[in-house]
Amino acid sequence: MARSSSARGSDREGDRVTLDQIRQGVSELTQLRHLHEVEQLTSETIRAQVAFQRGLGMSWRFIGDQLGLTAQGAQQRFGSKR
After folding, report:
1. CB neighbours of 43 closer than 8 A, spacing ≥ 6?
2. What is the pLDDT of residues 48-57, one digit of tens each?
3. What is the pTM assigned to this prediction?
């Protein structure tokens, strides 16, 4: 059984975006941007730490183990690009 317009409000009212919805959307976009920035900083930090550990003589196997990768996977991901 279909509801009448008066029971559900007018179609126009149902299509309106409230200020709270806009704020929530902006908040979610801001969170997404911040998460992306954290991801980039984390990646840069891991790369720097891998380079540091390699400079100390740590093996690719050790580094791979710490990151859940094989030695070859760690070397391919973090090794110098020739």
Report:
1. none
2. 999 999 999 9
3. 0.64
